[in-house]
Prior knowledge:
By secondary structure, this protein is mainly beta.
Amino acid sequence: MRKKLKITEGIFPMPVLMVATYNEDGSVNVMNAAWGTMQERGNVVLNLTETHKTVKNIKARGAFTVSIADAAHVVEADYFGVESGNRVLKKFENSGLTASRSEILDAPVINEFPLCLECEFIEYQNGKYGCGVIGKVVNVTADESVIADSKIDMSLVNAIAFDPYTHGYYKVTERVGEAFKDGLQLKK
């Protein structure tokens, strides 16, 4: 028997994305965004309201980065979600993490997160069903520690996912199948 739940945001796992921008003074701002995904190949979509400091920065700078949060930095990742860049200007400094400037865009790359998508701002959609920030991925970088055989090994990234049911974080580490191959055994 199925039980009815009082929840609407029940897709799991939800990614834990670290969206990084530069503030007006050049300091780094990072926010935790679970409401984000790929809109299509090469485009990122982040469901963020215009009240976020990050959205203001994206519009002003025309660029942002999206890093995949990992288990080693769950405290910092959560901090970026519970503290607002509108209230705390030194939010990134308080985390103890470090950043490098993207070689391509006017956006910071957070050094400690192992996988980073560098994005050029395309547009902001704010209609009733608008999806917020849309960006074009122009570069992807990964720390050498998560590369095996010249490819990203997601089990080494140790990515975390957000659980909207209990507000927990979970590690996403084990490969359990082969995409576009395993299902072929059922094809008739």
